[in-house]
Amino acid sequence: MTKKKVHEHLTSCDASRQMIEIAAQRGIETVFDRASAMRPCPIGAAGVCCKNCAMGPCRVVSAKEAGEPAKVGLCGATQETIASRNFARMVAAGAAAHSDHGRGVAEVFLLAARGEIPGYGIKDEQKLLQLGLDFGLDVANLSVQELAVQVGEKCVSQFGQQEGELVFLKRAPLKRQELWRKHRLAPRGIDREVVELMHRTHTGVDQDYKNITAQAARCALSDGWGGSLIATELQDVMFGTPVPVAGSINLGVLKADEVNVIVHGHEPLLSEMVVVASQDPDLLDLAKKNGAAGINVAGMCCTANEILMRHGLPIAGNFLQQELAIATGAVDAMVVDVQCIMQAVQKTAENFHTLVVTTSPKAKMQGATHIEFDEHDAIATAKKIVRAAVENFTRRDRKAVNIPDVRTDMVAGFSHETINYLLGGTFRSSYKPLNDNIIGGRIRGIAGVVGCNNARTTDDEPHILLIKELIKNDVIVLTTGCVAMACGKAGLLTPEAAKHCGAGLAEICETVGIPPVLHLGSCVDNSRILMAATAVVKEGGLGDDINELPAAGAAPGWMSEKAVSIGHYFVASGVYTVFGTTFPTLGSQVYTDYLFNGLEESWGGMWDFEPDPLKMAAKMIAHIDKKRAALGIDKARERVLMDMAMRRELEAT
After folding, report:
1. How would you classify the pairing of strands 259-264 and 445-449?
2. What does the alpha-carbon distance between residue 101 and residue 266 come to, in Å, rounded to a whole number?
3. 255 touches 363 (CB < 8 A)
4. Are 304 and 485 in contact (CB under 8 A)?
5. Which member of 20, 200, 500, 651 has the greatest number of CB atoms within 10 A?
6. Average pLDDT, the chain
7. Rounded Cα distance, 394 and 427, in Å
């Protein structure tokens, strides 16, 4: 049996297989080993374990499992109450994580606008003007700096707002806005909805699973149309709205003869400055004096997507590759901020010379070196971190370096504005060509495939099987986060990937020169998918609301609470959304049935669960076809070359 076969069930990535083998030879434990050794708790995974008070935990197993009537908690809480509370608390935690990211960006943006911190500026004035219009500011009579200050103040205020509605809800289709108001789902303020949801799910408060689910939607919408959207928009204004850029991905981007700095996490405020610091002449000279040919900055997790889209810098790997990157022996510093950072990276680093640097007061780690990011002197902080990496290069054991010769080229940076431009050019930018091709049937529909990697599945495989099946059936895919990285490693993020498509989608990709899978950014950038869906609705011809579009969403390998918040705000925005691997409410048949079947009638969106990626694709395509039929565009239309007489006849009618 070859080494490839030994670890084939763990990952579909050749570089990861090689490093898992090397780690095993060195006696280094990885997430894959821990997943094999530890089974998930079946009661907790099903969402029917309540630990919200000290009388528990109460394990409320189903009647089938218990062989008797379904149990309730000591307080009398039913399965559906407990499952909905647990689900809602996942939404609250996920929304808090994304929104706190957005808050940090807004605060730095405001400081930069006031001229209080060096290193940050305004790179996209057009988007700044649009934000000014969103907030009803007098953009015609304000300087760029004055406008930036007022936009920053307005964005910061959205977090603590107590009454009214979040401003960006106005970007949604009018019909969707009316639905949110009708069902009292419109968020009043970002922090308020998180706090209220945690209060409602406290012991002895809200005990109606439908009411809990509605507040969970209100909270999730404050993430998707609030905190995450604020983060995306302000990052674009400060660092530039992404445009298509060539890049490369996988552990092979690490360089044996250079200082390797991996930036890992989710907030680009620091990573942008690390990129600048890595180009500092003094630090480059120091690197050469220490025997290195240069300084190589590579990303991991969503920070990787940020520096790829704006600088074309390489991605070292996804969430499940963070320990494997260190195991190459070539990483001189792994610089982390917040979210998705395994505590195990420090233990792995102790086998090598790698310096793990924490930078956020919110996220420290025992054993790691803490160099706190100071936004008031961001460049100095970044230089200090890069200098530490350069100095650490001298401690590298050259004999311990094992970098897999595996890397793949890709194209990323497809913001919703870029899609608009690519379809129509500078003077006629429009979503009309996309809508026309959906109506005409060359594109069957749109799928948003997002989320994480999960060690309970074969790494990357569910994403790739699902997406290849979708594009084979002429469904164009929008992707973010670690799913986008899986697509990059599989070669699906280049125009040449059109060879995997059905004839209609392949024709569009070849004509426009785009991949069939469009990389839109990091996990907060799922807000770009919302904006793209809204643009399709507003262009016309495909219904009046997001739920009428031939579109579906999926997270085949999700693992974090952020994914549950994302999924719920897509459902509340009218999208059929299917998760793989596991689903956190399966222990309650009543509550699961409500999420999977009861929501669609009132919200237009619904949840679903399917662990098999090919069956998941079939469900998504069936939903897309159902929406096509409802729009009356399910029949194939003959392409007719119209002569002048036919055109006159059209004009007459």
Report:
1. unpaired
2. 8
3. no
4. yes
5. 20
6. 93
7. 54
Fold of 79-239: Substrate Binding Domain Of Dnak; Chain:A; Domain 2 (1.20.1270)
Round to whole Å and give the CA distance between 585 and 605.
Answer: 17
CATH number of the structural domain 415-631: 3.40.50.2030
Coil, helix or strand for 180? helix
Closest Cα partner for 329 from 427, 400, 254? 400
Q: Using H for helix, E for strand and C for coil, what is the string for 541-589? A: CCCCCHHHCCEEEEECCCCCHHHHHHHHHHHHCCCEEEECCCCCCCCCH
- Model's pTM, two decimal places? 0.93
pLDDT of residue 3: 45
Span 251-400 CATH architecture: 3-Layer(aba) Sandwich (3.40)
CA 449, 455, 456: angle at the middle one, nearest 5? 90
Q: Which of helix, strand or coil describes residue 413?
A: coil
Q: Round to the nearest angstrom and report the end-to-end CA distance of the chain.
A: 71
* Phi, psi values for residue 78, rounded to 5°: -85, 170
Measured CA to CA in angstroms, residue 271 lies from 278, 296, 313, 359 at distances of 10, 13, 11, 11
Residue labelled with tokens 């630090």: 283
Structure tokens at 515: 């991949």
Listed in sequence order, the DSSP H helices in 540-612 are 561-572, 589-593, 599-603
Is residue 572's pLDDT more than 70? yes
Cβ–Cβ < 8 Å for 470, 621 = yes
Q: Can you read off the two tokens belonging to residue 322?
A: 């963070």
pLDDT value at residue 636: 63
pLDDT tens for residues 136-165? Answer: 999 999 999 999 999 999 999 999 999 999
